[in-house]
């Protein structure tokens, strides 16, 4: 990838990535985190920051279909990747079945974990369309929620999975 | 059968009859009582919901606070010159640049400065702040500020904070006493003399942290003489009041706006250094300044649960009827007061609610230590004393050979009674909660009959539905609301200062508005929690909004309905009292042929009379007794709950697996069942975390050892038991439509419930929180030793003796 240096000699890199189907070629620093590129560079603030340590999962996005903590991924590592954020889940204003199910099951309270939860669940249903309850719990174990006790979130994911059956 | 009360002692509570309207016979509601989807759900599932940290303003700077690395130290000098030279640094401020007026959320003890002046009082205390063009430059600037400290001896053990030779943290509060309470009701000594059995137990709580998922953020903007602050707050009003006070501004020149808030649980009730330092930085630079805490800084700012040391003595009849209770507590307040005076009073005040006894003594010292300040966390001061009392009561039940559920039924509070500390309890279905919890948990088939390693426990809880008095003294009503119907009647907007922090107040208040107006929920819009555009409300704390904000909203909705029906009456030539409106359809009560839509009448109203608006406000009646601290714990209404849990203990590791929890709540008329049960789930989850894993730990120098969500050990989806949330029918005369609280109540029974289930399973008492595997394992070991078993002690093994 192309690199340029600023006056202090700090390198900048031009990367190419696809976010929610759109192609971008941002100029980034070597230490730029994917979460900051998304939030500050592309104004995709649906990706939340809760800890910046990979504990909470609020910044979960899909990177080539796999859920990752965007605070643990360098923007450089996303070069050439396809990223899906929460803004890319609904299509043409039409909610995804998981989004619908989160609403119908009262699985949202403060909503801060919701984007990450939905993306982790989306990745689960993509690889396992009919998960068991323990499989759902394991899939979202890296997404912390302080409001719901996970009760309705687990129900919402199981409900959304049934819709596909 | 109950034994008679010994002579000279009152044993059953005084009774009371509320003068309000009785329960209506017809409860055919159109909008309330239904699980409507959250009004903000779509924005939250699509990533469109903007939280404070998501906001950007033209020319915005980023700000950070430099904090103390020492628990207790004298500041000798601060040199900011190197930091100021760094390109991109726009301002560096210390105590010399800010007002020195002390602040705090509790007016009785303002003890905090924007920046420390002479000494720092805990690791994380505020020393200086910077505003820079980006976050990275902030960290460079903080590193370049040179602070010279003289390290002082620190108070880290609350039990020695009051020693004569302990270091003094605040010179104005000798012996590090922050709050000292001695309350006496009835005659406890006489109760103990006459009791058939008196028992004393000691319990210790844990220091926990709210850990909302959203970190605190505040963005401050000065335009001319006016300050606007966007903040992740639970109470725009208290923020506005205290920010205006600190800077000597009229409240009208301070606008506080809540955006979406990612959880609060008590931790976002008071303004922080982010608002105060941010306001100064914004004024100095003339630019918007966004300030934020990272996760470790949140733990250091804290304001979480106090650790309490709780000694309880109770005297009972032979049949387990409680005659008197003495609660003697110490709580670790940390370096500042925060909301801790109220916490200290709550700790004792709330113990009188679920069980009926008339003789009660409460002694408490909240002490200062050189640790982060504690404040109000879900359930406020009540959950740890509740854990202690429920454990204590199970010990008594065991000593007297009474079933734990039975001893609670014998003592359960009844409706329309007054507690010894003068709380008036209207609705109270404590007995029904216990009976239902017993039945749905299969208590009779399980108690004493579970396989080895399994146990079942029960506990109760009760909480206020809004505090009877505001945090600072004022005659403002507690809540106010306005409703504006759109010109063509196709929408209505509720304006309320009530603060949705995730619990769903925006949703339930719109349901209540629609019910009162005769409108549909789906047509409601809401503008909330902005001190400039919405009417005053004290915000989200003390589980107050459904009852208090709801009462104001109902009044506003009633006013809209009244005006609408008067207009409609003119239109169809009928007196308004012969018309009714439901779900936007106006009809004549005695002639179904005559109908009119809400829209038609509302539009005509606008054309003829101008905007169709309703207004409402709510202030509770004067509540409580005359003793010192009497206001704390007063409320127009109290929720009640019983929980039963079943646990399984791994004897080898001491691990506690909670299998099932049954929560039965008395929370009055339910507005939104789905959101209500979701509140129970969340409160129980938080109670469970505090019971088994969560604890903020410190090293020998007062530094937090586990300031991350992983090491603090927030429970994950894999840790949760099966939860069964159930309700008993209930109607509260003091609440609109009969509502009461639910959001905090379910946190209360949980800790004691788990402890009692472990007690039942293994016959061991774990007398401190959290109930970790280490403690359970150690208690099991002690029990085996006491039974004469030969126990291998790994620590005595030669391989460990180097």
Which strands sit side by side, in order, in the main sheet of chain B?
A: 4-6-2-13-10-11-12
SS-based structural class of chain A? alpha+beta
Helix proportion of chain B? 25-40%
Q: How many strand elements of chain A?
A: 8
Q: Name the CATH homologous superfamily of the largest domain in chain B.
A: Aldehyde oxidase/xanthine dehydrogenase, molybdopterin binding domain
What's the architecture of the largest domain in chain A, going by CATH? Roll
Give the largest interface pair and sizes. A-B, 54 and 54 residues
Oligomeric state: heterodimer
How many H/I helical runs of chain A? Answer: 5
The count of β-strands of chain B is 29
Strand content of chain B: 15-25%
Helix content of chain A: 25-40%
The appropriate CATH architecture of the largest domain in chain B is: 2-Layer Sandwich
Molecular structure report:
The complex is a heterodimer of chains A (165) and B (802). Chain A is of the alpha+beta class and 165 residues long. Chain A has two domains: 2-88, Beta-grasp domain (Ubiquitin-like (UB roll), Roll); 97-164, Orthogonal Bundle (DNA polymerase, domain 1), CATH 1.10.150. In chain A, 31% of the residues lie in helices and 17% in strands. In chain A, the strands form two sheets. A five-stranded mixed sheet of chain A has the order 4-3-8-6-7, covered by helices on one side. In chain A, strands 1-2-5 form a three-stranded antiparallel sheet, with no helix packed on it. Chain A is elongated and about 55 Å long. Chain A starts with a strand and ends with a helix. Chain B has 802 residues and is of the alpha+beta class. Chain B folds into three domains: 52-152 and 216-292, Aldehyde Oxidoreductase, domain 3, CATH 3.90.1170.50; 303-469 and 625-785, Aldehyde oxidase/xanthine dehydrogenase, molybdopterin binding domain (Aldehyde Oxidoreductase, domain 4); 479-617, Aldehyde Oxidoreductase, domain 4 (2-Layer Sandwich). In chain B, 27% of the residues lie in helices and 24% in strands. Classes of the chains: A alpha+beta (165), B alpha+beta (802). Chains A and B meet through α2, α3, α4 and α5 of A and α1 and α16 of B.
